[in-house]
Structures are given as structure tokens and as C-alpha cells.
Amino acid sequence: MSERVPPVISPTAEVAPKLEFLIRETGGFDEAPAGAFKIKIFHSAAFPWEEVFKLLLYRGYKVNVTAHKADLFVEATP
Fold first, then answer.
1. Is residue 46 within 8 Å of residue 23, measured between CB atoms?
2. pTM recorded for the entire structure
3. Alpha-carbon radius of gyration of the chain
4. Of 4, 22, 42, 55, which is the most buried if we count CB atoms within 10 A?
5. 66 bridge partner residues
6. SS3 category, 29
7. 70's torsion region: left (phi>0), alpha (psi -120 to 50) or beta?
8. Hey, is 76 helix, strand or coil?
9. CB 40 within 8 Å of CB 71
10. What is the spatial distance between Cα 47 and Cα 23, in angstroms, rounded to a whole number?
11. How many Å apart are CA 76 and CA 9, to the nearest integer?
């Protein structure tokens, strides 16, 4: 018997709802049409850095952390 192979799921399909659940009130994000994300960190001490990085990096995103004056941003591109 051959096993059924599940269809390929887009790696960006589930990222936005999971990001929203993870960061809650510690940050906010904008999603670009190409599947990129720009996350603004509101509370860096409470922000779930590890979970957010795992979510993005395991799905093949390139992740950059940038600072603009006193604000921190996580920019992720597929």
C-alpha cells in the first residue's frame, strides 16, 4: 500500500495568525503583499524573541533586526 502524501502547503500561509498569537501586546506587525513582515517591538523585555525567530527561520525567512532611534524592528523576508 502506498501512503498518501499531503499537499504542499505554502510556508507563509500560517505565519500571520501565529505571529499575532505569539507577540500579542508586546509588538505589532505589517504584512507586505510578497509575504514579508515588519514587526515593531513595543516591549523588548517581554517580547517572545526565541519563538518568533523559530517561527520565521524554520519557514525559510531571512530575518534582520534593525533599530531606528529608540525603536526595534524585526524584518522578515521569504
1. no
2. 0.79
3. 15
4. 55
5. 73
6. strand
7. alpha
8. strand
9. yes
10. 6
11. 19
Look at 12 and 29; give whichever has higher pLDDT.
29
Report domain extents, the chain.
15-77
Mean of the pLDDT values across residues 49-76? 93
Helix (H, G, I), strand (E, B) or coil at 69: coil
Buried b (16+ CB within 10 A) or exposed e, 45-69: eebeeeebeebbeebebeeeeeeee
- Whose CA is closest to 37, among 51, 10, 55? 55
Task: Tell me the C-alpha distance between 67 and 47, whole Å.
Answer: 15
Angstrom CA distances, 28 to 4, 10, 11, 62, stand at 39, 23, 20, 19
Rounded CA gap, 16 and 32, in Å?
Answer: 11
